[in-house]
Amino acid sequence: MRRPGYGSEHTGRRPGYARADMSNHPSERAPTKSSAAHGSDRELRADARRNRERVLQIAQQLFARDGLGVSLDEIARRAGVGPGTVHRHFPTKEALYLAVATDQIEQLVEEAKALATTDDPAALFTLLSRMMASGAENAAVKSALAAAEFDLRTAAPDVAADLTRGVTDLLDRAHAAGAVRHDLTVEELMALVAGAFAAIRHAGAETSHERSAHIAQIILDGLRPRPR
Amino acid sequence: MRRPGYGSEHTGRRPGYARADMSNHPSERAPTKSSAAHGSDRELRADARRNRERVLQIAQQLFARDGLGVSLDEIARRAGVGPGTVHRHFPTKEALYLAVATDQIEQLVEEAKALATTDDPAALFTLLSRMMASGAENAAVKSALAAAEFDLRTAAPDVAADLTRGVTDLLDRAHAAGAVRHDLTVEELMALVAGAFAAIRHAGAETSHERSAHIAQIILDGLRPRPR
Amino acid sequence: MRRPGYGSEHTGRRPGYARADMSNHPSERAPTKSSAAHGSDRELRADARRNRERVLQIAQQLFARDGLGVSLDEIARRAGVGPGTVHRHFPTKEALYLAVATDQIEQLVEEAKALATTDDPAALFTLLSRMMASGAENAAVKSALAAAEFDLRTAAPDVAADLTRGVTDLLDRAHAAGAVRHDLTVEELMALVAGAFAAIRHAGAETSHERSAHIAQIILDGLRPRPR
Amino acid sequence: MRRPGYGSEHTGRRPGYARADMSNHPSERAPTKSSAAHGSDRELRADARRNRERVLQIAQQLFARDGLGVSLDEIARRAGVGPGTVHRHFPTKEALYLAVATDQIEQLVEEAKALATTDDPAALFTLLSRMMASGAENAAVKSALAAAEFDLRTAAPDVAADLTRGVTDLLDRAHAAGAVRHDLTVEELMALVAGAFAAIRHAGAETSHERSAHIAQIILDGLRPRPR
DNA sequence: AATGAATGAGCCTTCATTCAT
DNA sequence: CATGAATGAAGGCTCATTCAT
């Protein structure tokens, strides 16, 4: 554990006034690239996007290191922008959680899709290994979000469904090839991945990469078909 | 007095004052049983203890259901006491976390000790099963505490060490009997238990007991000796 | 998200957190005048500064009238700002004490410096008279701060040293001119000024200006060389 | 200054419910010794009085050392009694201030009365010297009380009047003998004594007895008749 | 009469969110 | 669009006071 004391948390500040819909907020407009139509607008967009990216990245780091409790002001300060700017891009703190989580999941979806094109029946294990190895940082964020009961399935059904679909495909293939125990469902699989994150995180930040891998391996071993 | 009210003063709220030694706080006095000497004294204690228990129990429930973010005022309200009473028993919020965590761990230690007296080489698995099955509530609290980087090893070294010792004993025996994979260390084992909690919790509160058991089983299977 | 509300979290209120470095707090940034570069920036600052001044002034009044015990909320209310605004300018209550005290001392330092440029060997007495006459309000604040053992010498060594230096200069000159008893040290002098404040204050707020002056005069007379 | 930070203060807790008259509270009954009529009652009284004395003494010490801000619980703890006992003797915190102040003043009144029986025209100075020398502890308490605008003249008119009367007598005699400047009134004199306390206190707790005496002397010198 | 547990108002501080510039 | 000052609702904690034992 990094610090003796505190960490992942969020304040549970009940917004009070501005709980409203976050619909036509700029950051909610689909980030299509097609909007790069006429010059001057695009120029500003570039700036704005750079800011958005920067805030997102800093937020990810700080959430991972200090938990969800870091203040938006702190994030703004470290990102070199004003608090107002953070709010322009992420109208509530929860929106920022969501963006961070989504960002990380999307990478996994990409990977799942890529692996889906191979023939390897054990592609599932490749994906799982990568997921589990994806580092303490990610694990920290996810673990914090999980503890905060921030449920991606509710908050961003699309992304979550995407991931589930990708994993399901790989799981089906593995089942077909007998590479995985027959009584394993996708839900259980996802839960176990979350568990792996937690386990690795619990082992401590100072834990060697090897030990993390070993923990992951043990869980993966549990997924193998049971010897009769 | 010049004015009817009060005058020059300041509250002397020393920021960080709560950090001071909490030694002679009632809840820190060793809970010796020798104090059960004469009736009236015991009677008074009983009331206080009842309150303490009640707060602890409510805190456990609320932490499990809503996370560590629940306010002490809320806990007090639900426990039917004033905020000051919570403070009397648990001088800081962290002390309350600690008490909740300790309370839960102590049960496990008891169980570990009990199992240590049997001859069963698979006693380890019995303990692990029980730990993992110990319910969503516990899992929720532990997961929340873990995510908050609340480190029991730092906060209550004694209890943590007790648990580790108990588990180590069982692990050694399992190793000797070849009931567990040879490359498993206690640290990994503890991490995996934490991971199991997270996994079960991730599966969702509405998950059936069976599914939880299945997830636990998968992790336990991973601990078995590898088939050569 | 599972539930509509929030989840596992804790607020991360670190007791004693306010003790952390207040370095890059706005009010700590050196008040350079160079920031008066371009209009819009200065405009914004003007608003903030107006607020700051207002809070400081109200605080001074209330501290003088009701003692250091007045709550920050009360000060905020009377200044027509929210508690957060007070905090923005004065991150802790002590910072506000300090600001009030510093504000008052700085005026004296100015005066001391001005008098230092004259040739009058009795300039010391002029300064002391002015200090003592500087009004019940100031006296009240200082007396309150002194009673609270708020030590300017520790809290703001620079300002305190400035004042001491100025007074020392004048005292030296007075010594040289034989205008003051030879056995008087700066420390004693400062203590006596504090005593004069207390005496005037003790005489009561409703005391006439004349009586205050008389009390001051008596103390000043004690500083004169002893008739042999 | 003893500690860098805080000190004399009181919390300004506005009692809310129990602001009522403190009349027929046991501690308000005149402490005549005649009530020692029948045995069993007298036995209890002795205990109670011992407790009262002890609390008073501890309160005096703590007020002097740490300011009026010390909590009643702390005082109770150090006095070896329960908080309830403190309240039995001093129903409000202010009552405790009053008792402490009164206790100290009464000693001075005794002294003044004793001196009033001598013929020494400079008896006034003897009294003043003693008052001023009466130690940092007393000064601390008085200064704290003064800063808190705790005005003995309002709170305990009798004792205050007693003291004033005694001092007036001595002042009159000194005036008659030409031992004191003719333009000095009792009110000024009392204010100056308060000022002397503050000055001595300001010089710091670590100040030598000699320096304290010197400061007192300077003030006393100011009281002497002006050389024409 | 003493104890000490309980109360609850209030304090200082934090921080998500809003809004004037 | 960005800035950063302002808001204000909590939150954790303290402590004078009350009351059951």
TrEMBL record, chains A, B, C, D:
InterPro entries: DNA-bd_HTH_TetR-type_CS (IPR023772), Homeodomain-like_sf (IPR009057), HTH-type_TetR-like_transc_reg (IPR050109), HTH_TetR (IPR001647), Tet_transcr_reg_TetR-rel_C_sf (IPR036271), TetR_SbtR-like_C (IPR049445). Keywords: DNA-binding, Transcription, Transcription regulation. Signal peptide: none annotated. Residues 1-45 are annotated as: Disordered. Pfam families: TetR_C_43, TetR_N. Residues 71-90 bind DNA. Residues 49-108 form the HTH tetR-type domain. The keyword Transcription regulation applies. This is TetR/AcrR family transcriptional regulator.
